[in-house]
């Protein structure tokens, strides 16, 4: 994933520079998203589009006429238009206009996974959900490559009766590209074309739902790909590949293009997906940082989806291990971080002095051709420590194994640079920024990645030994308890939540490292121009890969419990998540090598079969989210962006005193620097099979916090009955001010179910803002 992300960022930088220079020379038009009150339309207009068109005609004149790109009516209400800054300012003053937001560019953030998650054909979530047959997953991404075996519709019935979507046919995407598996496909590009100032160059990009990048095909097949035998990536990860919800239907909404993904296009896809009738939306896209919810088009679109009963799963981002880096943090979104599997692709470094350092690789060459001991050099002594193309001295690297530091440029680009300079092989060594996180890549030359500790030893050996040598030993695919799994990826974005301190994010972690899934036939596995290879499956990493795992699990839960709300589905995934690895030890954070925390992994790692029968759920209604916004300091005008102005919101009657009072399945407690007391009420609903279940509470926390629960016993007499409890946290003194935090949990158990919620504690100065 890092390869494609860095490429996207490079293009994004060039794109923004070009756009900025052109707009600074004149008061040219830009794209704005205008949110309006649904009820304000004058009766003289037959449609909202007529109203919007008339409104634009009344704006101050400009050499560039204002024009509408999209109208929104299902997940949001309003339109996207090309406007000058003066016209946008004029619109903001008009009655019925809730907000006028500039368009924003967002970035794109398997054979073993089902077994690792405990999914089986004979018991649990798969058979109980009928593999999510008739559940529709909307994938908002780079499109789809429909010819893959992963999208076979063998054994599937016709599309659900309530499906309203279409297959948007074009030259390279005929109507026959859709079937009973891919039941919908559309492309959204008006925001992109408006920003670039010209139509899409169809020699470089496909102006259709066809995926020429690979990302969307990978995420779609992860969420809902059919079972495919004899899958694999060259000689790696061979076996049966299957999406989480292998009988779910897929609707592909192409929103991302070479520079990235524009808000106006994303919101249009949300709007269409909800109108089409999807049950789950999967979005592995996000901004560089989390922003206020009414300024965040993904949060706005996801709120509209929640209003229609659609569960939305989003990636947390790949900006870890920095604190406050998680994005897509609205409470109505399932925010997913990335973790490892118990599958590895070892490629060890053997030094000339006999030491062996563990690494990983997906080098596809014949192992018989692996280089024997060759001279070893450190790239920093050859012109470029990060191995930038064109900066390595061929005289110093020719025929040698080159040690390149990770960072600066794409991982696979380093191997390409070494190859172009005449190097024989590469060792990519982590620095402190990446710790012991190992991501396997399909390099064009023999290459491996090693962690920081091994990297420091290899660098030291290369610089100190008068004639250093090394070789790489490739060992294929290994499954087992060593190294332990899951572990949290260093790149996985994490909390604390920079928008709402009292809301713990991310929510859960799921497999996102070295994930095998379907790939486009248009691009190589490395996306390098010099790479001629084409594959049916590719192995990449990112929270982009963990998100569709959870999207697929949400589809399975919707299939098993069709009456559950999106919040109930999220609650089931969160309260049944686990925090121990396959060796019985606390989950590790690869960024530090130490124990992970709820700021890093949220409630823990998803456990699908336990989520099928969680015992209790913390349900949340859309009206509760409105009260959450009130408690977060939003006034009626700001909230109307979400409610579409259908009714004036009176925040004075809100039942939530603080954002932390939302009936969320986790807790984030914020004390002042001198301590204090915080109490929250929660309501749990009995969804277990026992109508007379009795649950007792057990709490744990740091020594400087006293936790009390009232009542400590919840006695249910009927199924779907709801009971409330109050939990109080008292700081027994000052704590550590900062982002590191202290942690605890509350567990409710009836002897057969364990309903666990993590608790994060922080002490902050009252004047400190997270922005």
Describe the structure.
The protein is an alpha/beta fold and 771 residues long. Among the domains are: 346-476, Glucose Oxidase, domain 1, CATH 3.50.30; 666-764, Immunoglobulin-like, CATH 2.60.40.2310. The chain has 18 helices and 40 strands. The chain is globular and about 80 Å long.
Number of beta-strand segments:
40
How far apart lie the N and C ends? 28 Å
- Computed Rg: 26 Å
Shape: globular
Q: Strand order, main sheet: write it out.
A: 19-18-25-21-22-23-24-20
Alpha plus pi helix count: 18
CATH class of the domain at 346-476, named Alpha Beta
Helix content: 10-25%
Mean pLDDT across residues: 92
Largest sheet: 8 strands, mixed
Please state the second-level CATH architecture of the domain at 346-476: 3-Layer(bba) Sandwich
Low-confidence stretches: 1-26
CATH topology of the domain at 346-476: Glucose Oxidase, domain 1
Class from helix and strand fractions: alpha/beta
Proportion of residues in extended strands: 25-35%
Please render the helix and strand layout as text.
Layout: H1 2-24, E1 30-36, H2 48-57, E2 67-72, E3 78-83, H3 85-92, E4 97-102, E5 105-108, H4 113-116, H5 125-129, E6 136-141, E7 182-187, H6 190-196, H7 215-224, E8 228-233, E9 236-241, E10 249-254, E11 256-257, E12 260-262, H8 263-276, E13 280-283, E14 285-286, H9 297-307, E15 311-315, E16 334-339, E17 343-344, E18 347-351, E19 356-357, E20 359-360, E21 374-378, H10 394-397, E22 401-405, H11 411-420, E23 425-429, E24 447-450, H12 452-464, E25 469-474, E26 478-479, E27 487-488, E28 508-511, E29 515-518, E30 537-540, H13 543-560, H14 566-575, E31 588-589, H15 598-601, H16 608-612, E32 616-617, H17 622-631, H18 636-643, E33 667-672, E34 676-686, E35 694-700, E36 705-710, E37 713-715, E38 722-731, E39 742-749, E40 754-764
Parallel strand pairs: 6-10, 6-13, 7-10, 13-15, 15-16, 16-28, 21-22, 22-23, 23-24, 27-31, 33-40
Antiparallel strand pairs: 1-3, 1-4, 2-3, 5-12, 5-14, 8-9, 11-12, 17-26, 18-19, 18-25, 20-24, 21-25, 29-30, 32-34, 34-38, 35-37, 35-39, 36-38, 39-40
Helix pairs in contact: 7-13, 8-9
Organism: Stephania cephalantha
Pfam families: fn3_6, Inhibitor_I9, PA, Peptidase_S8
Main location: secreted
């Amino acid at each position: 994933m890092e390869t494609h992300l860095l490429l996207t960022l490079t293009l994004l930088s060039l794109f923004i520079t070009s756009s900025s220079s052109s707009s600074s020379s004149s008061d040219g038009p830009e794209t704005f998203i205008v949110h309006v009150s649904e009820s304000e339309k004058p009766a003289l207009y037959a449609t909202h589009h007529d109203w919007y068109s008339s409104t634009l005609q009344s704006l101050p004149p400009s050499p560039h006429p204002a024009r509408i790109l999209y109208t929104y009516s299902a997940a949001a209400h309003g339109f996207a238009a090309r406007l000058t800054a003066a016209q946008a300012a004029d619109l903001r003053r008009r009655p019925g206009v809730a907000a006028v937001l500039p368009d924003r560019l967002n970035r794109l953030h398997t054979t073993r996974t089902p077994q690792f998650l405990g999914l089986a054909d004979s018991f649990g979530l798969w058979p109980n959900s009928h593999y999510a047959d008739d559940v529709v997953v909307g994938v908002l991404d780079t499109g789809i490559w429909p010819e893959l075996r992963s999208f076979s519709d063998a054994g599937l019935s016709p599309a659900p009766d309530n499906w309203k979507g279409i297959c948007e046919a074009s030259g390279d995407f005929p109507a026959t590209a859709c079937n009973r598996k891919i039941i919908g496909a559309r492309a959204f590009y008006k925001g992109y074309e408006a920003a670039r100032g010209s139509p899409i160059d169809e020699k470089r990009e496909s102006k259709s739902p066809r995926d020429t990048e690979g990302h969307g095909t990978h995420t779609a097949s992860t969420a809902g790909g059919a079972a495919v035998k004899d899958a694999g990536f060259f000689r790696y990860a061979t076996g049966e590949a299957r999406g989480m919800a292998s009988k779910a239907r897929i609707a592909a909404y192409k929103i991302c293009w070479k520079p990235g993904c524009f808000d106006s296009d994303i919101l249009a896809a949300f709007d269409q997906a909800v109108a089409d009738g999807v049950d789950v939306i999967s979005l592995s896209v996000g901004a560089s940082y989390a922003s206020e919810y009414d300024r965040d088009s993904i949060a706005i679109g996801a709120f509209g989806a929640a209003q229609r009963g659609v569960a939305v799963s989003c990636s947390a981002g790949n900006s870890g291990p920095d604190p406050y880096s998680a994005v897509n943090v609205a409470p109505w979104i399932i925010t997913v971080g990335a973790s490892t599997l118990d599958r590895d692709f070892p490629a060890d470094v053997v030094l000339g002095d006999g030491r062996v350092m563990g690494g990983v690789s997906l080098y596809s060459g014949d192992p018989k051709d692996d280089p024997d001991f060759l001279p070893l050099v450190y790239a920093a002594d050859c012109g470029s420590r990060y191995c930038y193309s064109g900066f390595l001295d061929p005289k110093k690297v020719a025929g040698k194994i080159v040690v390149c530091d990770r960072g600066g440029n794409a991982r696979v680009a380093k191997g390409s640079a070494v190859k172009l300079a005449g190097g024989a092989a590469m060792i990519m060594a982590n620095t402190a920024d990446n710790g012991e996180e190992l991501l396997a890549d399909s390099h064009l030359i023999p290459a491996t990645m090693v962690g920081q500790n091994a990297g420091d030893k290899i660098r030291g050996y290369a610089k100190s030994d008068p004639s250093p040598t090394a070789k790489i030993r490739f060992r294929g695919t290994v499954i087992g308890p060593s190294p332990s799994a899951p572990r949290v990826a260093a790149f996985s974005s994490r909390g604390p939540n920079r928008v709402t301190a009292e809301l713990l994010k991310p929510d859960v972690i799921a497999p996102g490292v070295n994930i095998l899934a379907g790939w486009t036939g248009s691009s190589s596995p490395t996306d390098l121009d010099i790479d001629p290879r084409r594959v049916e499956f590719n192995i990449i990493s990112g929270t982009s890969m963990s998100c569709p795992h959870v999207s697929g699990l949400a589809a399975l839960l919707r299939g098993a419990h069709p009456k559950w709300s999106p919040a109930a589905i999220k609650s089931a995934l969160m309260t049944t998540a686990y925090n121990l690895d396959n060796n019985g030890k606390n989950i590790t954070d690869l960024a530090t090598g130490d124990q992970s925390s709820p700021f890093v992994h949220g409630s823990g790692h998803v456990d699908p079969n336990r989520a099928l029968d969680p015992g209790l759920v913390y349900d949340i209604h859309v009206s509760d989210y409105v009260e959450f916004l009130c408690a977060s300091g939003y006034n009626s005008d700001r909230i109307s962006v979400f409610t579409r102005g259908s009714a004036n919101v009176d925040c004075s009657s809100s039942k939530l005193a603080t954002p932390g009072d939302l009936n969320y399945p986790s807790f984030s407690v914020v004390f002042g620097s001198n301590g204090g007391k915080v109490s929250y009420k929660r309501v749990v609903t009995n969804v277990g099979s026992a109508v007379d279940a009795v649950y007792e509470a057990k709490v744990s926390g740091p020594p400087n916090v006293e936790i009390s629960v009232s009542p400590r016993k919840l006695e249910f007499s009927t199924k779907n009955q709801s009971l409330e409890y109050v939990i109080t946290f008292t700081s027994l003194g000052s704590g550590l001010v900062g982002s590191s935090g202290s942690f605890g949990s509350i567990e409710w158990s009836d002897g057969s179910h364990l309903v666990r919620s993590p608790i994060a504690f922080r002490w902050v100065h009252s004047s400190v803002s997270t922005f």
